[in-house]
Every structure is written in C-alpha cells, then in structure tokens.
Amino acid sequence: MNVELRFFATVREAVGASTLTREFPADTTVGEALATLESAYPDLDGVLLDDGDVAASVTVMRNGVHVDNLDGPTTTLSDGDRLSITPPVTGG
Amino acid sequence: MTETLPSVYGGEILHVHLDSGETEIEEIDPADARRFLGGNGFAAKQVSEHVPADADPLDPENVLAMAVGPMNATPFQSTSRGVLGFVSPMTNGFFDSTFGGTFPRAQKTTGFEVVVLHGRADDLSYVLVDEDGAAVKSADGLSGLDTYETCQAVRDREGEGHDTHVLAAGPAGENLVRFACTLHESEIREGVAGRGGSGAVLGSKNVKAVAISEGSFQPEPEGDLQQRAIQQMGRLMEDTQMLQEYGTSGLVNPINEMGKLGIRNLQAEQTDEENAEAVSGETLRAEYVTEDTTCANCAVKCGKHVTVESEGITDAKIPEYESLFGTATMQEVYDIERVVKANDLCDRLGMDTISWGVTVAFARECYERGLLDDDDSPHLEFGDADGLVELARKTAHREGFGDELAEGSFRIAESLGDDADHYLYGAKGLEFAAHSARGLKGMSIGYATGTRGGSHHDTRPTLQYDGQHDDTTEGTPEFAARSQHFTALGDSLTQCRFVSEGGWGTMVNENFTEAINLATGWDLSVEEVERIGERVYNLERLINASRGVANRAEDTLPYRVMNEPVPDGPSEGMYCPPDELEEMLDEYYRFRGWNDNGHPTTDTVERLDLEDVAEAVP
Q1: N or C: where does chain B have the smaller number of CB atoms within 10 Å of the terminal CB?
Q2: Which residues face B118 on adjacent strands?
C-alpha cells in the first residue's frame, strides 16, 4: 500500500523533502512506519520513537488527526493515508 | 516577625502624574509580593486600585501600569518580558499585554517594579524613567513618526544610544485606533505589546513613548537560581527547536494540516497545501530570513528578521504565526511578499496584526454578503493583496473606511446590524487569535471565559495540540481554568511563554515552584504557587465584573462558533453548540467557586485573600 508522507520544519530538513509517497506492507502501524523512516534517514534516528512510543520531540498525524487521539503508535495505516510529522506544535 | 521583601525585588512602584509631571514612590508591601508575585499580578492590583469602574478606557482616569517580574534580570531563562496593564479600549475590561526585548530588564535595574502612568499630558510627551524617578518631556517633532522612528528619535534625544530603551506608539496610537499596539525596538530584537490597545491608551494620555535609562539595581536571588536554570537548559533547547529555526511561523503548515487554521474569515479551517506552504515558516526561512534575533537572556532566539527586496523591506520583523493567520489565511492572501509588507506596515504604524487582520477579514465577508459595497470601500474582496497594504495605512490614519476598521469588528457589526454579527470571530470585543475556537474544545471554554477576551494567552492551546482536550469536553473546563492559572502565574513571573512551555512545563508544577523559592527564599508548595495564578486571575475577573463586562451573558462565543460546524477537513463537524458551552460554563464556575452568573463569591474572595483589594460583585 502507498502512504503519503508529509514533513514539516526540522523534520523536513532531516528528510530533505516536503512530501514523499512510500510503499509499506498492508496493515503497517504508525510505529512501524516511523521505525522505517528512522532507518532510512540518519538524521531522524532516535527522533521519531522513544521506547516504541511516538517521541515527545515530534507530533504525528494520520490524515490530520493526532495519533494520540487514535491508537498511538499502534494506529494502523491504510492505502492512501497521509502521515504527517512535525516538531511539537505549540501555542504561538 | 515583620516580613521583608526578597532581594530579587527592587522594592518600589513609581507613579507618574502626566498632568503635573510630578512623581511619587510607593514601597511594595512584602505581603503583596507573596500574593501577586509581580508583572501581571502587580499590574492588575494597580488597575484595581486606581481606575474607577465607570472610567472609559480612553479617559485620563485609566492608567498604564508597566510591570516586571521578580526574576527579571536574573539567570532564570527568558524572564525578560514586561507587562502593560490597563483597561482595554477593545474590551472595556482589564488587559495585560506582554512584550520582550531589553526594555523590561532595563526597567528592573531602576528598582521600579511597576511604573504607573496616570492622567493625561497637556502636550504630546514622552516619559523618561531612571532610577531616581521620571520626567515628562516634550515630544515636539515626534508626532506622526512611526514606532521605529520614534524609538530612534528618543534615543537620539537622550544621547545614550541603545542604553536608552524605548517603547513607542505609532500613528495608530496617536489616532486612538482601538487596537493600537506599542513597539519596543532594541539592539537585539523588537518587542511588541500587541493586543488590547496599549497604544491607544498611551495615545489617549498624549504620550508618544516611554524610555528607560538603565539604573544600578541588580536583583539577588536568595538561592542558586543559576544552577537550577542550567539544569533546565537541555530540555529547553531540545523542545524549542522549531522556534529556534522558524519562530512561530513554523506553525502554519502543521496547524493547517490539522484543519484548525482560520481561512476566509473562518468559512473554512484548512486551505490547499500550496497556499499554506506559500505563507509558511518553511518558505519564509528559505527565501527571506536574514538573521535570528532574541530578547535579553534567551538562548532560543525565536525572533527573525526578513528582507523582501520587491517591497523595499530590509531586516523587518518576521510575521508571527498569529499575524500570518490574521493577515494572510483569514484574507485568502497568499502573496507572502505583500503579507510581509502589510505586517511591517502594521508594526511601524503601531497596530495589532490579529485584531486588525480579523477585522478586515470580517469586513470582507460582510462585503461578500452584501452588507458592505464598493461605496463603503475599495479592496474588500477576499484575496486582494494590494488592498491589504492600503487598508493598513488607512486604518492607522483613520482615512475613509479605515475610520470604521479602527474601531474593530465588534463595533462595525453593531453599526451594520442585520446579521453582521454572524461573521464575527472573537469574544468580549477582542478578535480571536489563531487557535480554533471550534476545533479545540479547550479554546472554546478558554476563550469564552478569558479575562482578556479572544486571547490565546489565557487558556493555552499548546496541550490541546498534543491531543489533550482538543475534541472532548470531559475535564476540559477544569483544564481551561488551570491553564489560566498557569498563564497568570507566568505573566506575573514575566517569563516568556515559549520558554516556560518548552523548558519548564505547560501547567504550574514543581519546576516553577523550585525556581520561585530559590529566587525569593520562600517555601511555597506547588499548590500555593498555583494559587498565586488563581488569585491574579480572580482579581482580573473582579475588575471586569465591577465594570459589567464579566458575567454569564458575556462568557459566550460568536455565532459561527456555536452554530456552524467546520465544513470539511480533519476537524469537519466540530463546533461548540450553545448547550455544550452552557454545560462547560456550569462546570467551570463550580470549579472556580463562582456563582451562576460567573462572579467570584464572597467565600472565594476570602479564600484567595483578595478582600482588601476587590469586593465580590453580586
């Protein structure tokens, strides 16, 4: 299945692209997708995950919804989903 | 034993009577330091004591109280902010507007924790404060200068260069534009007391600027505050990476991604990603940022300068996230160079980019729906980028339709009648900031109960973006209230919110408590420290209740937020219907110990040790 990946700010700098489409096995979870990205991009190593949980240093959204409001790192991805990763969103 | 004032306090309040030029000095009661801490708390006490409940905000009876915190000029990170306290021309209620730079630290060195401007000068003046007192000086030749020009002109007159720290009103303040702001230009960055109309209050007093000449007072913490601050540094720098590189403009893309960004006067809350990218922090950094800027004693450096050659702009202040909401996405103007121009113009003319932007967006929707037409004003179509710049100039000078815009969206709605109020986006007369009143439940109740009105510095959105209280009302009223304690405490410490949230905590906690105890030598518990914030917030509420602008009827949300769900995107269907708001208000009032009309009860006033400062209002 294909998942659209969106990166913002310092995460975008680490990846070197704002948007990518990447193929994942069916039923890949958010945590598994983040682990894949940590392996693929050295500057993201240790940034996205913390002991299997989504790290406090990033906010991760599936289709615009914070994954903490879904099932966290065990949230399942589907074909065509959009996974967005940004540094923590603060109050301005 | 008689209590003494901790040595971090300068110990005095300076009252400046603009009519006569006379000054008087008041000693700070050590008990008041424990009760109100500083900054916001001290300013609220001054407004409570000196402004009659029936005084118009633009009358000489209003005051402008400039206050700093106990840890300003200590190693405690980023306590370099100052607070302006006054009754707001926008809300007719108490307002505290904060700003950074070097002015507040300089004020601290004079030993005056608060400088209170009373009355009205006969002629346009500026006030020079030093450690001996203050002088009211002629501002002859300064009328009409913009904020930056005024700061420079006062520095030139005083002849000490950047050792004179200046806060100025622009033409908008002189013209009593209700949302006129004040701007402080320092050697290391600008500070803007943006919201609530501090520039208009200064203008109403015939004061063009306030200048500080550095003094010799140095606050001395009772304990090793420096070591405690160093302990927090690692987390601070880790958690503020986006601010360090992009400033708050980095929020445009992710908040649009969440579907919680105001578009076209809130007709939508998500725009195409190409539009968001065009006005994003990423674009600004890649194309326009020239340097990082910073307030005193801050390693985060969230400030940026931008240069836009096509607009003739060199090293202007970067538009903050809130400003990009107000002047870009709410207008559907995605020409970033024109947006930067409009923002720079607002800074120079001295206008709050949030209230101005949301007011223009409101007018544009009224035009779209036939409530305004071309005879009222050109440039009222959504997307008109050139109009954005032209309307800013006209507003500040009250030219043509700018005279209407200068009154803010609520007063325009009242004059238009019909259904114009359906298109408002604000509370208590103050336009909302860029954190969705529909898409974040904590903001729904937070904005409705905010003492400042539509401010995002009463209840904070930060934890809501982390997935807490964004889509549930369960526990949300208590969260909103306790977040208000956190912000009132933080503004009394005068610590930068970004630094406190990034490095110290998002609610009152043991970190703040330890730091306050190290600074003052007190032995407060976390609960007692939170109670300071609660006390300050209740004092603000009591001021507003006495003025008739804080009660259940006023604790409301605009029509669109309560009746029109977000039409699409990730927040589709979200809004705050009236019955939901009423339920949250009941819970919120119960938690606070307020009566059904939203007034602190006599018991609450006693519990918070406020009896000598303010009376309960039935």
Answers
A1: N
A2: B17
Which amino acid, residue B400?
A: G
Burial level of B426, CB count in 10 A (0-12/13-18/19+)?
buried
Mark yes or no for CB contact A66/B470 under 8 Å.
yes
What is the torsional sign of CA B440, B441, B444, B445? Answer: negative
How confident is the model over B474-518, as pLDDT tens digits? 999 999 999 999 999 999 999 999 999 988 999 999 999 999 999
Q: Which residues contact B54 (CB under 8 A, 6 or more apart)?
A: B547
Q: What residues are paired with B226 via a beta bridge?
A: none
**Measured between CB atoms, which of A9, A64, A86 is closest to B570?**
A64
Interval B102-160: pLDDT, tens:
999 999 999 999 999 999 999 999 999 999 999 999 999 999 999 999 999 999 999 99
Q: Where are the beta strands (DSSP E) in B139-282?
A: 164-169, 182-185, 190-193, 207-213
**Number of Cβ within a 10 Å radius of residue B405:** 29
Read off the pLDDT band of B618 (50, 70, 90): confident
Q: What does the alpha-carbon distance between residue B257 and residue B274 come to, in Å, rounded to a whole number? A: 12
Residue B176: HSE in the Cβ half-sphere, 13 Å Cα cutoff: 7
Structure tokens at B249: 């403009």
Contact across the interface for A87 and B241, Cβ inside 8 Å: yes
Q: How far is residue B228 CA from its own chain's centroid?
A: 28
Interacting residues of B1 by C-beta distance below 8 A, sequence separation 6+: none
> In sequence order, which residues have a C-beta less than 8 Å from that of residue B132 and are 6 or more positions away?
none
Task: Report CA-CA distances (Å) from B483 to B411, B442, B446, B460.
Answer: 30, 10, 9, 6
B97: β partners:
B84
Q: How far apart are CA B100 and CA B192, in angstroms?
A: 7
Q: How far apart are CA B190 and CA B305, in angstroms?
A: 10
ipTM of the complex: 0.98
Task: Tell me whether residue B227 is exposed, middle or buried, using C-beta atoms within 10 angstroms of its C-beta: 0 to 12, 13 to 18, 19 or more.
Answer: exposed
- A21 bridge partner residues: A4
pLDDT in tens, B213-269: 999 999 999 999 999 999 999 989 988 989 999 999 999 999 999 999 999 999 999
CA distance B86 to B221: 29
Contact state of A91 with B460 under an 8 Å Cβ cutoff: yes
Shortest alpha-carbon distance between residue B372 and chain A (Å): 33
On whether the pTM is more than 0.90, the answer is yes
Q: Which residue out of B242, B353, B483, B572 would a mutagenesis test of the A interface target, given it has the greatest number of A Cβ atoms within 10 Å?
A: B242
Whether residue B43 contacts residue B53, with contact meaning beta carbons closer than 8 Å, is answered with: no
Distance in angstroms (rounded) separating the CA atoms of residues B90 and B99? 19
CB B304 within 8 A of CB B291: yes
| Inter-chain CB pairs, A–B, below 8 Å | 100
For every residue of B270-297, DSSP letters joined together read ---HHHHHHTSHHHHHHHTEEEEE--TT
- Residue B30 burial by Cβ neighbours in a 10 Å radius (0-12, 13-18, 19+): middle
Sign of torsion over alpha carbons B510, B536, B46, B35: negative
| Nearest residue, CB atoms, B254 vs list A56, A57, A89 | A89
Q: Do residues B23 and B114 lie in contact, with contact meaning Cβ atoms separated by under 8 Å? A: no
Q: List, in sequence order, the alpha helices (H) in B207-319.
A: 225-239, 241-246, 252-257, 273-278, 281-287
Q: H helices of chain A, where?
A: 9-15, 30-40
